[in-house]
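Hi there,

I know you've been waiting on this one. I reran it after we fixed the sequence typo, so this is the corrected version. Both the input and the resulting structure follow.
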Amino acid sequence: MFQALLLEKDEAGFRASLRTLDEAQLPAGDVLVRVAWSTLNYKDALAITHRAPVVRQWPMVAGIDGAGEVIESTHPDWKPGDAFIHNGWGVGEAHWGCLAEKARLKGDWLVRMPEGLSARAAMAIGTAGYTAMLCVLALEDHGVQPGDGEVLVTGATGGVGSVAVALLARLGHRVVAATGKAHEADYLHRLGAAAVIDRAELAAPGKPFQKERWAAVVDAVGSHTLANALAQMRYGGVVAACGLAQGNDLPTTVLPFILRGVTLAGIDSVMAPRARRERAWARLARDLDPALLDAMVEEVPLADAIARAHALMDGQVRGRIVVRIGSA
């Protein structure tokens, strides 16, 4: 028996609750794991609050992310006692997830824990931080270097934004953080932001071609924010787009692309191949300051995850929420 955050939907409506389940109820998979730590991402919060149709089959154990150790395995790459990280692959949406003491997963989905990184730290980073690193890698792969100019991070107090600010600043970039939470400016400066701007400067409809400013952008917002960022790119600039907090539309033109040679790089964290995941996690273990990670993390027990998911959706959370599973 084990504890899990179970999402149910039937004639009685939707319910999210902490339930005791039997191991025999777990779905198919070639690796059985003990989850020590998990986290709450934006998509987790959408599922737990039922504010968007994230869950594709019912009932569902929530939790995109998990870290802990392998209990049993028939997969050739994994043996009992191995430390793992899991992100994405439809877990918590179409396959029972990791906001639970146990999970049965596919070995091909798992990444080995990098040396020097704990399970708690890995979940403090979570999909949000892993996505931020995928964005940083995309900027680097397209030639962006420290000293090229200002790098904009939108949604900067969120999970992706917070980690992106910390990573980019530590790598030597001048980071400008955009946020709607003016009272969090000190927090963003502590993470390494050189300047903080009001998200309202980017959120309204703007001209399709504007004064050049940004050498690179990490955008988790989409819609008019992304359109304005594109319109303000310097020649040859690169935008890594990974989110849609404002919306999934993109009201822009081809002008930034054909007149300034701007690159728009799409970032997918859910189905990214293992090699890309391993590269991102190795860099996170090396480049993310543990002290700054601690500054952006709130730790809660599994029993509080539902309440914190609602708070996240209501804009009452900054940074990352790490979830302690059982007595981890």
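Quick highlight: The chain has a mean pLDDT of 95.

Best,
R. S.
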